[in-house]
Amino acid sequence: MRILLYLGKGGVGKTTTAAATALRCAQMGYRTLVVSTDIAHSLADSLDRPLKNEPTEIADNLFAQEINVLDEVRKNWGALQGYMGKILRKQGMSKPVAEEMAIIPGMEEIFSLIQIYRNAATREFDRVIVDAAPTGESMRLLAMPESFQWYVERFFGWGETAMRLTGGLLRRLMPEQDALAGLPKLVDDVKELQEVLSDPQTTSYRVVVNPEKMVIKEGARAVTYLSLYGCPVDAVVVNRILPGVRAHGSDGGAADDEGGRRAGEAAVFAPSSDPYLRQLQEQQARYLAEIERDFYPLPILYSGWRSEEVVGFGPLRSLADELYGQRDPGEVMFVGQAQEIEEQGNDFVLKLPLPHIELDKIRLTKRGDELFISIGNFKREFLLPAVLAQRDASGAVFAGGILSIRFPCSSQ
Ligand SMILES: Nc1ncnc2c1ncn2[C@@H]1O[C@H](COP(=O)(O)OP(=O)(O)O)[C@@H](O)[C@H]1O
Ligand SMILES: [Mg+2]
Q1: Of 31, 142, 224, 253, which one has the greatest count of Cβ atoms within 10 A?
Q2: Quick check: 289 and 266 in contact, CB under 8 A?
Q3: Which domains does the chain have, with CATH numbers?
């Protein structure tokens, strides 16, 4: 089974890309499920088919489903949430706050993913395409098989202490035995899910961006955290590229009138006569080049800005053709980590592969969680995970295509 998760900032084209990818997979003969966990259901709009909470067959080999996240929470967490909520209320919290607090951040998505995985396994899907992938919070829960268990034990350990303190009345109020009965099963499910979602042979995360500043930043942040938690990111999708703009990779590296462009370079090859559009083209070309540098060495898939919304099978299929060409969307597009953090004594060393560049003086500038790297003419922005943003960088070495940046322990 292959699980492909498409993530990125709202509006970039995640749902569209997921739907197009699913259509292509089904067309290739794979039994495919495309699922959305977005509360604002748009998969049905994109596919132009009504969908339900259960997988519905909408074409040969193609099933689609819109999961009701709130239902999943209620089903899996309802009893436990009630139990915790009562304890918290007993401590003086108001009811709405207590019930809100009783949800572990990120749980909603995890319940949905467990449901997706269960469905995929029992109904024997070859391909599962997920629209609205896990956020940072749920990634944290999934990062270690033990973290969820640790969380839950602390949570309920605390609950038991509170029970002892508040005594008999509360005990009578709560059927705590029933509430806690499902807990070990849940812990096992999360463990299994974690294994599946971090196995690069099974799962690939793909970050969808547009050639726009804030969107690129959010995408870069996603790659940073996914890498930190060991989630296999294997490609970047750049959607909504204006006509007349071309990146190095978008023509498959074929020679063109510009000639000699390398990764990290993009150009406007057909400038618009409209000065407004022309300016947008130039801006996109700059950001396209930035995307190639900032996401290196991840492969990049490109799709253009259509004059009409991409809705229904026809337009989605044509978008898939543009994105994947002859490729199978289910192939593992990149093996390895796009970035790594190594522990060396008390220091952390960030290891970033960089394209072939002339060795020159390396300059590092840090601003908040942004790290600006410049080596000669080469410039790259990097979004640091919080663990590195808290420290200062002490120096960098570029060798064997890898830039190693040292972050010494800040406490001495
Ligand atoms: N390449 C494109 N050209 C034109 N419209 C697009 C393109 N990609 C997406 N859209 C449209 O943009 C809107 C947002 O896309 P969607 O896939 O729902 O984004 P997300 O799921 O990331 O929020 C939709 O109306 C969709 O049809
Ligand atoms: Mg969407």
Answers
A1: 142
A2: yes
A3: 1-332 (3.40.50.300), 340-407 (2.60.40.790)
